[in-house]
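Readers of this paper often ask what the protein records in our data store actually look like. Such a record has a labelled line for the sequence and another for the backbone structure tokens. The tokens are whole numbers drawn from a learned vocabulary of local backbone shapes. We quote a single record here, exactly as it is kept in our systems:
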Amino acid sequence: MKLFQTNYGYFGDNGKEYVITRPDTPKPWVNVICNGDYGLIISQTGGGYSWRTHAKFNRLTRWEQDLVKDEWGKYLYLRDNDTGDYWSLTWKPVCRPPERYECRHGLGYTTISSLNAGIESTVTFFVPLDEPLEVWY
């Protein structure tokens, strides 16, 4: 069951995830993931930044707060060696329209899945409860 469905997404069955079904939301829709010591902000397009101990004064990656552009982030790319075609696992920075796209912002994690050129990819971002680091898998 999709709860409070809009043109861009809905809350999942249990209400603990917001599922974004297209990357081109009117503004960045972000998830703040932090264990009290280390944190990251990640948008539905893969934009965001990481910090340790203080989100404003101790940023580990570059970032400029822009509520419209969402241009700062850390990105992973895929390339089809047969065709030379490439895209990003998250929508940014390549911004290639995917065949299918889904971002799940949950409590303590974000998972982005997409289908491009017949190749499906999924990446999950989270911060362990007791370690000062982020995991992408």
Observations:
- The chain has a mean pLDDT of 93.
